[in-house]
């Protein structure tokens, strides 16, 4: 570490903490001559789901090839030389935002192992809630772990299965998992996609030039001109292979049938607004959240101002419902990233202004309603309310198009510990004071379900994974509640 690196690191860490962290993206294609290049494009379209690192693994009929890098897809995979190092007509790729295991090169996915059945690569979106417990058992039995991610346990479980067929080994392995997963995996003969029994994380099937594709979101299919076929179902494994020159897709359902409970946060914040998740346009749903929010907590005002990016569709819905004009009163700088100029103390003091700045002409002298999709630690809201006042807003009202986040996520979203969640520590009035707004209101849980097309949330049969707002975790939480509370830190220092 160079002298002076620490303050810069902590500056970016602070900036990074002003947000909800993403999760991960997976992509896979089988039997296409440009498999690696298409995977790079797909990962590019899915960059919003994870920005720490990316990787692509291909298979050329005799060997696997892997390229894994820390950083953004565009910076690492837009170069022809990198793509040329990834020959083969089958590929899987991954964008990572870590939830278990640090941001170091050996944790970058897809992970790869040489098994008795041949090479095997896997990419994972989600988080296992018994990953550390399984890992502890495996290590006790002699497993040599090469990474510190939860995902690696799947490789070991497949390797240790006593079944003969590769698919049976994979099923054996995933039956032991608890938590959330959307997997893409590649063996010498097959491309595999799998979703956990509740379908917490998304995964879709598409087709390009007659070849199958798997992707976290439909926006990746649109980017490469592929056709959307269907969502992979909860608890479903799809196996894509080639027989007599034709691609075949088998579907397996190894779990007892269960109702799906996809994560509602995909709709609120994670997924790209142009994606269709579970048959619903994310953009439409976000706008409806804005309509519901306006119905529940109307306020007299002159202008509706979205907090970009993800607050925009809800603010539009709020404006349409309330009849109050919508204006871009905050501009977001899209070039804020880790490669930005090395900040000095002075720049550090400017804080969030690097990311958002007030558009004074639209807010000065006005009663402003700020609309954002969610509030986590409250960092963004505090700074933006102050920014509106500095720009001359007469009143600042804050509206959130989701309910208060009172519980941490363990399924692939890197929300902070409970005691850092503002709504877990404060009541509404305390939060209003903290944020500094004249009024503050959140969308109700029933309002959220109405935006999803339901009458209300049925507590006996909730249709979505919504623990962040309700504390209702739909799976066991072995690692979090078990007696041993295992923690896995990297014992090997790595520069990354
Ligand atoms: O309460 P906080 O801890 O500040 O976190 C909440 C903020 O984080 C997210 O935005 P983010 O900046 O991640 O991304 P966006 O540009 O897509 O809205 C979310 O949309 C809120 O604006
Ligand atoms: N956010 C995610 O989906 C992360 C996947 C996996 N748990 C990891 O940490 O690598
Ligand atoms: Mg935001």
Automatic annotation (TrEMBL):
- In short, the EC number is 2.4.2.14
Q: A GO molecular-function term, please?
A: magnesium ion binding
The EC class name is transferase
Protein's UniProt keywords contain Membrane: no
Gene Ontology biological process terms from the UniProt entry: 'de novo' IMP biosynthetic process; purine nucleobase biosynthetic process
Q: Which InterPro entries match?
A: GATase_2_dom, Ntn_hydrolases_N, PRTase-like, PRTase_dom, PurF, PurF_N
Record-linked CDD domains: GPATase_N (cd00715), PRTases_typeI (cd06223)
- Provide the cofactor note recorded for this chain's UniProt entry: Binds 1 Mg(2+) ion per subunit.
Q: Where does the source fall among the domains of life?
A: Bacteria
Question: Binding of Mg(2+): at which residues?
Answer: 310, 372-373
Quote the pathway field: Purine metabolism; IMP biosynthesis via de novo pathway; N(1)-(5-phospho-D-ribosyl)glycinamide from 5-phospho-alpha-D-ribose 1-diphosphate: step 1/2
Leader peptide range in chain numbering: none
Keyword Transcription regulation applies: no
Q: Which residues form the Glutamine amidotransferase type-2 domain?
A: 24-243
**Family in the record:** In the C-terminal section; belongs to the purine/pyrimidine phosphoribosyltransferase family.
HAMAP family for this protein: PurF
Function noted in UniProt: Catalyzes the formation of phosphoribosylamine from phosphoribosylpyrophosphate (PRPP) and glutamine.
Could you tell me what this protein is called?
Amidophosphoribosyltransferase
Q: Which organism is it from?
A: Terrihabitans soli
Q: Coding gene?
A: purF
